[in-house]
Amino acid sequence: MTARIIDGVALAAKIREDVALRAAALSAKGIQPGLAVIVVGSDPASQVYVRNKVAACQKAGLHSVLESYPETMTQEALLDRIKTLNADSKIHGILVQLPLPAHIDAHLVIETIAAAKDVDGFHISNAGLLMTGKPLFRPCTPYGVMKMLEAEKIPVRGAVAVIVGASNIVGKPMAMLLQSAGATVTICNSKTRDLAWHTRHADIVVVATGKPRTVNGSMLKPGAVVIDVGINRTPEGKLCGDVDFESAREVASAITPVPGGVGPMTIAMLLVNTIEAAERVQQASI
Fold first, then answer.
1. Active-site residue 179, yes or no?
2. Residue among 97, 228, 242, 244 flagged as catalytic
3. Quick one: 98 and 201 in the same domain?
4. Which residues of the chain have pLDDT under 70?
5. CATH of residue 218
6. Is 83 a known active-site residue?
7. Which among 29, 43, 117, 120 is annotated as catalytic?
8. Known active-site residue 32
């Protein structure tokens, strides 16, 4: 068996086309969806992500504001800037790129963003709504994964799903979305005993550890669907995921590549969340 490749680039392009149509419809009603992206410091990966996000916004007809600040920016100054954006009617989504410098409390920063503009879906109010099955914003990466499973017509209801990685950004919200869709979900972490036992029993395996080759083909059930959320750089400078792609594709029925899998979908769903935020403002004004 050689797994079919789940093409995140192609699906993300379709989603961006839909976003562009929705953005044009809002613009015709006098509302241009706006996203503010704040980056503090000069982390190379953050700079790449931010550029990609801003470029995607512009292509889809969204108003995008990129604000770059030095690593020496104070926490107070950042919080004040967020409060100003909260009050700006032209901005419908606010994203603060993580990680932040050590002297800034990321949790406090996220909680300062207005819940109605928290297009990352990280605010405690949005996390709580997700937990109760009534999300306002779904975190972009897990949201993108769900869209991939839907597009590939992969059965989720009744499936056994194992998530490797328990972060607030991917692992935990991924579990909530899969559970809401009817899957039986296990979250594994760095303390899990016999990780391979869990992954070998899974119909769907989502890997988000930030460590190359955490999962390989010997750890999979034949025919499993493998979603690789990770992105790492090898000593040779090549990009790779958290899954050993070559061995996994010989066992899985479908697998996401790195690059070209989940990454483009994360950005696409950020645009979707921003459009949804703008549409709520438009509906409220009727």
1. no
2. 97
3. no
4. none
5. 3.40.50.720
6. no
7. 120
8. no
